[in-house]
Amino acid sequence: MRIGLTGGASSTDKIVQQARQAEADGFTSLWYASTVAGDPLVALATAGRATSSIELGTAVLQTYPCHPLLQANRAAAVAEAMGRRGFTLGLGPSHESLVRDVYGLSYDRPGSNTEEYLRIVTALLRGDDVDFHGRDWTTRSAGRMAPCAYPVPVLLSAMSPRMVRVAGRYADGTVLWMASATVIDTRIAPALHAAAESAGRPVPRIVAGLPVAVHDDPDEARAAVAATATAYAGMPNYQRILEAGGATNPADVAIVGSEASVRAQLQNLLDVGATDIWAAVFAVGANRKDSVRRTTDLLRELAATN
Q1: 28 contacts 79 by C-beta, under 8 angstroms
Q2: Which domain range does residue 197 map to?
Q3: Is 22 within 8 Å of 54 (Cβ atoms)?
């Protein structure tokens, strides 16, 4: 299985240490939130230089506060600093509450805004000059874009039908959070593949991100998710994707249970169309270290079955 973990720690040194360990353990990727180390790109580039094969991706960087030309240049800089393939740029429009209340920006057209953004970023990362005048974004890139030393795949956080179509048409796939196997099977994979095929693009990736814990009491494990995921439960974008799969809160979609049960649930994600699993390991019970170790031991075993 292609299994990745959540990346991030309290310092760049620890982020590098985590990346080295994850690579040594056979994990295929680490996924970094936009808030890691203030901005994950410096730490991620440093970790990339200290490793040789593990994929390091953002899940996700916000589009609204960063112009697409600047974002593309930042991505090119990370690829050059890493000195190898393996950086994946995950992007997403974030949430209305953050964009409006924190950045003071309009969130009136997230679909069209993101589509214009993806068109610009992906073209720039291909090495194209861009002269684009859109409703939300304008870019005149001639002489202003750094060359990409290595290819930088782009994944879009796609949770609505329009975003899925945009991901299929312009990106290399989607990176998901809180999307159950049911949602991937019925809503994400068919529409994403259709959009990519219509645009003449390769088969897209689907990175399925979910909380994961091996624990003998599934109810206790779900309670642990519910206690730590209240922010996600209150965001409309996540609530819609949960409801689409028949869930009411993040605890309902968490991958929990015995080793055999977790193995089967992860395999089911692949069976319905996921290409990669992003396992957000969480602790259950009083002995947090042992809990995390038990889950990680299983994931390490499964990662070795590529």
Answers
A1: no
A2: 3-303
A3: yes
pLDDT class of 42 with cuts at 50, 70, 90 = very high
Q: How far is CA 258 from CA 180, 264, 291, 295, in A?
A: 19, 10, 12, 9
- Report the alpha-carbon distance of residue 155 to residue 92 in Å, rounded: 9
pLDDT tens digits, one per residue of 236-292 = 888 899 999 999 999 999 999 999 999 999 999 999 999 999 999 999 999 999 999
Amino acid at 80: E
What amino acid occupies position 144?
Answer: R
Q: At 164, which amino acid appears?
A: V
CA–CA gap between residue 212 and residue 255 (Å, rounded): 5
CATH number at residue 47: 3.20.20.30
The structure tokens listed for 26 are 């056979």
List phi, psi (to 5°) of 212.
-135, 135
Q: String of b and e for 33-71 (b: at least 16 CB within 10 Å)?
A: bbebbeebbebbbbbbeebeebbbbbbbbbbbbbbbbeb
Nearest to 61 by CA among 92, 85, 30: 92
CA angle, 191 then 197 then 200, to 5°: 145
- Structural domain total, the chain: 1
Rg (CA), the chain: 19
Find the helix packing angle between 68-82 and 40-49, rounded to 10°. 20
Query: H helices of the chain, where?
Result: 12-24, 40-49, 68-82, 96-101, 110-126, 161-170, 181-183, 189-198, 218-228, 230-233, 236-244, 250-253, 259-271, 288-303
Rounded CA gap, 59 and 209, in Å?
Answer: 9
Locate tokens 């699993």: which residue? 277
